[in-house]
Specification:
Shape: globular
Oligomer: single chain
Order of helices and strands: HEHHEHEHEHHEHEHHEEEHHHH
Bound molecules: iron/sulfur cluster
Number of helices: 14
Radius of gyration: 19 Å
Strand order of the largest sheet: 6-5-4-3-2-1-7-8-9
Number of strands: 9
Helix content: 40-55%
Strand content: 5-15%
Length: about 375
């Protein structure tokens, strides 16, 4: 059934509605948990990054885009990041977008963020800053001095912007690895203090990290982070997503997703129904198009398809990869793609509604 659903989605919508676009291969950090490391890039990417004109041709081919993540490396490294965000919003009739960042170059990030907010008025935009633990832990994980103080300064400065732009939101992302798993509770307390009105997203190390040991995570520590968030929701201390009318639905979806991840980790959920390659897709900075970040099956390079995303997305190769994903009942805990897949998997819908009601109740208790 999911083969037909995914094929139909691709034909009708013509291109992914949840697009992760790598706009830079460069990064200020050298995180130990990073799968997007030199070894991975050498093995998988060509080294000529897409120019603004090439990105513009790509955007031109996209009829409509629900969600765009401009990522890297570090997207804010691009001097033309404001222009890229404006151009995509205009050409793709973009509904919502996000930039994840290490938060290292505070002034640069805050200035570019405000520039983006000004050129795209009213379009929900979120910046997610990475915070992997208390100062010593964060800097050990990220291999950089000053990384913690700068990330905190960035979160605080972005929250000042949030007060002035009601379509802007600030999130914090923590990636649990072998190096910070002992500090989950401490990290959660810091996040609650510096970003009390936003979402805390907790990921687990995946792929082949720069430091192979980074992946040795005791799942109970990852689960602990999820429990901390659920506890805050229950106590009315958690605001979650903001910046648009459906924000609380996204927080509810994230709560349901946390439960799904637990089931996957415990082996209690069957694979099948992943929407990578239909609703969701990834384009790397050299133009390589993939269904997701985890599978090593490329649909091809957008440069070889005249920057026409619907053409590559509806090619025979794309159909084969979509079918392969369903035939193998591919399953993983990649948070972004799990979110997208939950939209086409009815088994998750009652849980999302339940979590939304829970959020409504705790918000009203707090009010
Ligand atoms: S995890 Fe992100 S911030 Fe860290 S090195 Fe990799 S791309 Fe850069
Ligand atoms: S289950 Fe995970 S690895 Fe498999 S296609 Fe979906 S996102 Fe990719």
């Amino acid at each position: 059934m999911y083969k037909l659903i995914n094929k139909t989605i691709s034909r009708v919508l013509r291109s992914p509605q949840y697009l992760i676009l790598f706009v830079s291969g460069i990064c200020w950090m050298r995180c130990r948990h990073c799968w997007y490391n030199e070894e991975w890039k050498d093995a998988n990417l060509q080294h000529n990054q897409m120019t603004f004109d090439e990105l513009s041709r790509l955007a031109e081919s996209i009829p409509f885009l629900h969600f765009l993540s401009l990522t890297g490396g570090e997207a804010f490294v691009r001097r033309d990041i404001v222009e890229v965000a404006e151009m995509f919003a205009r050409k793709t009739r973009l509904n919502r977008y996000q930039i994840p960042t290490s938060g290292f170059m505070t002034d640069n990030i805050v200035k570019a963020t405000e520039g983006i907010l000004k050129v795209n008025p009213g379009i929900p935009f979120r910046v997610d800053v990475s915070l992997d633990g208390p100062e010593a832990v964060h800097e050990e994980v990220r291999n950089i001095q000053g990384g913690f103080k700068n990330a905190i300064a960035t979160i605080k400065a972005l929250n000042q912007l949030k007060k002035r732009y009601d379509y802007f939101d600030v999130g914090v992302i923590t990636t649990v690895s072998n190096q910070n798993q002992h500090a989950v509770e401490e990290t959660g307390a810091i996040v609650e203090k510096v970003n009390p009105d936003g979402e805390w997203m907790v990921n687990i190390t995946r792929g082949k990290p720069r430091d192979p040991c980074a992946i040795d995570v005791d799942v109970k520590n990852y689960i602990q982070a999820h429990q901390l968030i659920d506890q805050r929701i229950a106590e009315g201390r958690y605001k979650g997503h903001g910046g648009h009318l459906l924000a609380q639905w996204l927080s509810a979806k994230n709560a349901a997703r946390r439960q799904a991840i637990l089931k996957i980790l415990k082996g209690e959920m069957r694979g099948g129904g992943c929407a990578a390659g239909s609703l969701g897709g990834v384009i790397f900075n050299d133009g390589a198009v993939f269904p997701c970040e985890m599978l090593e099956h490329s649909l091809g390079n957008i440069r070889d398809y005249d920057f026409d995303l619907p053409r590559i997305w509806n090619s025979r190769r794309a159909d084969e990869i979509r079918d392969l994903i369903q035939d193998t009942r591919c399953i993983c805990t990649q948070e972004c793609f799990l979110s997208v897949s939950m939209l086409i998997q009815p088994r998750h819908w009652p849980n999302i509604v339940k979590e939304r009601i829970k959020l409504m109740k705790t918000t009203s208790v707090e009010a």
